């Protein structure tokens, strides 16, 4: 609502100063006034556009990809005079998930703060993820969270306050689920939307699950699938495979409380949560603090639905490169490791899983208990190899492990539109005999389809190259359903018509005139 008398007073003051009083970088009258007849300095606001707001359209970096990279942060923190206080059991120099401050011989505070930009579009879900992510640092230390303070950066002149309310409602609901009261908070007018919480917990000083206790022979267990940064970036550019963002949101919003409880009961020696610095960043910090070297089993990584496809198509945020610059020297990959798998190791996670170093004798039982508690994606992804200085070796045995989430995705109605070899899987699926009718044939066919998927998954050749090969082979085979399927997917993946035609003409060069006539007919249809 416009108050013309108030506008006159405020604009008169601004014009006399030569600057808008709400934004000194702008003159008065500002561009908003000229274009929309609105004076933000006088409190006038444009009506919020109808329909839902896509939060990720409002930010440059999604989720924990918005964090400052580790190399820059290390330079900024170097030489700062952190106090040498004996009550600080774990402080900033340790680089752990949270700080720990002793207040009695049998009691300590564990404290953390975490703020980041949206990794999903829905405000309520973003609030839940922000809360789960902030609580995770307390759980990773083995602590019990007791209170939280909210932190919000919000573009109040550009987005309706109802969006901020939904973010806070989601965060408060998730905190209530964890039994943690939100007792206050702070907000700031900011051009880029961000939210998070400062969380305080309690812990016994002798029961801290620090990142420095891993020992040779320990198994490394990860409790959530990887790929949240990849999926969020794919969603920002309109390339997220069907169902992938929803699966990522469910994973990010899930609390790590049950995993932490089981971790403590299992006698885990060390723990960290995997967030913005990626798997390699957080694992290398644990390994360096523990003075050990570790091995990762790349084929055992649990993945979110659609992540392997995105990797094959080169869908990686810039934060992958920033993490690689910070931690790349700590990772050595075997020669047979597919390059996309290396990229995955640097993907920034948002509200990721707990990464635990567990005595090998306790690993199987802990994994079974995690699965029984609903964490079906939990997996042993590596081991502590030997004493060392924090090095990581990435190994690969030739085939990716499908997490429970990925298996559901593969079987979903959308899966045939998002797997690399979707044409053959689709056209055999309707004719497949049920296992109960003829288990032998069904099993053979399933193995063949699994082979097709493995053969066409990204590896030494990336996904785009394999898609071009698939187009050429489909044209050469003159398989109309296959060509139509691969052409559809190629266009969705950003192929130009010239690239498609060039792939087809490779086939025509081998197949001759009949192949050319076949392709021309399809191209015109």
Layout of helices and strands:
Layout: H1 4-17, H2 31-36, H3 70-77, E1 88-90, E2 99-104, E3 107-116, H4 123-140, E4 144-154, H5 161-177, E5 182-189, E6 194-203, E7 219-222, H6 228-236, H7 244-253, H8 257-266, E8 270-273, H9 278-290, E9 292-297, H10 307-312, H11 318-327, E10 331-333, H12 339-344, E11 354-358, H13 360-372, E12 379-387, E13 392-395, H14 404-411, H15 422-429, H16 439-456, H17 463-477, H18 480-492, H19 497-511, H20 513-524
Parallel strand pairs: 4-5, 9-13, 10-13
Antiparallel strand pairs: 1-2, 2-3, 3-6, 4-6, 7-11, 7-12, 8-11, 9-12
Helix pairs in contact: 4-5, 6-7, 8-13, 9-11, 15-18, 17-18, 17-19, 19-20
In short:
The protein is an alpha+beta fold. It has helices at 4-17, 31-36, 70-77, 123-140, 161-177, 228-236, 244-253, 257-266, 278-290, 307-312, 318-327, 339-344, 360-372, 404-411, 422-429, 439-456, 463-477, 480-492, 497-511, 513-524, and strands at 88-90, 99-104, 107-116, 144-154, 182-189, 194-203, 219-222, 270-273, 292-297, 331-333, 354-358, 379-387, 392-395.
Commentary on this structure:
The chain is an alpha+beta fold and 525 residues long. The protein has 3 domains: 4-46, no CATH class; 63-395, PurM-like, N-terminal domain (60s Ribosomal Protein L30, Chain: A); 413-524, AhpD-like (Up-down Bundle). The protein has helices at residues 4-17, 31-36, 70-77, 123-140, 161-177, 228-236, 244-253, 257-266, 278-290, 307-312, 318-327, 339-344, 360-372, 404-411, 422-429, 439-456, 463-477, 480-492, 497-511, 513-524; strands spanning 88-90, 99-104, 107-116, 144-154, 182-189, 194-203, 219-222, 270-273, 292-297, 331-333, 354-358, 379-387, 392-395. The strands form 2 sheets. It has a 7-stranded mixed β-sheet with strand order 8-11-7-12-9-13-10, with helices on both faces. A 6-stranded mixed β-sheet has the order 1-2-3-6-4-5, covered by helices on one side. α4 (123-140) packs parallel to α5. The longest helix is centred in the N-terminal third of the chain and has 18 residues, at 123-140. It is flat. The model is unreliable at 402-421 and 426-437 (pLDDT under 50).
């Amino acid at each position: 609502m416009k108050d013309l008398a108030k506008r006159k007073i405020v604009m008169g003051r601004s014009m006399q100063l030569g600057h808008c009083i709400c934004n000194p970088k702008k003159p008065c009258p500002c561009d908003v006034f000229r274009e929309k007849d609105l004076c933000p300095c006088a409190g006038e606001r444009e009506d919020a556009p109808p329909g839902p707001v896509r939060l990720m359209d409002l930010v440059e970096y999604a989720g924990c990809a918005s964090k400052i990279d580790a190399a820059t942060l290390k330079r900024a923190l170097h030489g700062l005079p952190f106090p040498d206080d004996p009550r600080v059991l774990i402080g900033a120099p340790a680089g752990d998930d949270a700080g720990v401050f002793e207040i009695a011989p049998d009691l300590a505070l564990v404290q953390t703060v975490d703020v980041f930009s949206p990794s999903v579009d829905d405000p309520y879900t973003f609030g839940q993820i922000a809360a789960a992510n902030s609580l995770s640092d307390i759980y990773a230390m083995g602590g019990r969270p007791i209170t939280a303070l909210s932190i919000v950066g919000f573009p109040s002149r550009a987005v309706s306050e109802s969006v901020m309310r939904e973010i806070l409602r989601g965060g408060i609901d998730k905190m209530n689920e964890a039994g943690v009261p939100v007792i206050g908070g702070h907000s700031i007018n900011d051009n880029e939307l961000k939210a998070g919480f400062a969380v305080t917990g309690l812990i016994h000083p002798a029961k801290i699950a620090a990142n420095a206790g891993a020992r040779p022979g320990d198994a490394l267990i990860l409790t959530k699938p990887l790929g949240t940064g990849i999926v969020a970036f794919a969603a920002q550019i309109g390339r997220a495979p069907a169902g992938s963002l929803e699966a990522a949101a469910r994973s990010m919003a899930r609390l790590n409380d049950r995993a932490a409880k089981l971790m403590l009961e299992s006698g885990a020696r060390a723990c960290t949560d995997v967030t913005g610095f990626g798997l390699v960043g957080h694992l290398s910090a644990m390994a360096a603090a523990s003075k050990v070297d570790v091995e990762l089993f790349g084929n055992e990584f649990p993945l979110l639905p659609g992540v392997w496809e995105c990797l094959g198509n080169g869908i990686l945020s810039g934060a992958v490169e920033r993490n690689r610059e910070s931690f790349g020297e700590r990772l050595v990959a075997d020669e047979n490791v597919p390059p996309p798998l290396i990229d995955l190791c640097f993907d920034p996670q948002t509200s990721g899983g707990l990464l635990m170093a567990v005595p090998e004798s306790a690993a199987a039982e802990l994994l079974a208990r995690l699965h029984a508690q609903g964490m079906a994606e939990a997996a042993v992804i590596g081991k502590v190899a030997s004493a060392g200085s924090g090095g990581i070796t990435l190994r690969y045995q030739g085939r990716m492990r499908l997490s429970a989430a990925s298996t559901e995705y593969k079987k979903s109605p959308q899966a045939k539109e998002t797997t690399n070899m979707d044409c053959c899987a689709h056209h055999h699926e309707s004719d497949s005999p049920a296992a109960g009718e003829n288990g032998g044939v069904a099993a053979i066919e399933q193995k063949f389809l699994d082979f097709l998927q493995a053969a066409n998954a990204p590896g030494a050749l990336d996904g785009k190259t394999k898609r071009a090969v698939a187009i050429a082979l489909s044209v050469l085979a003159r398989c109309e359903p296959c060509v139509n399927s691969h052409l559809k997917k190629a266009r969705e993946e950003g192929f130009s018509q010239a690239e498609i035609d060039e792939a087809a003409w490779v086939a025509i060069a081998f197949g001759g005139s009949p192949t050319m006539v076949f392709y021309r007919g399809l191209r015109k249809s």
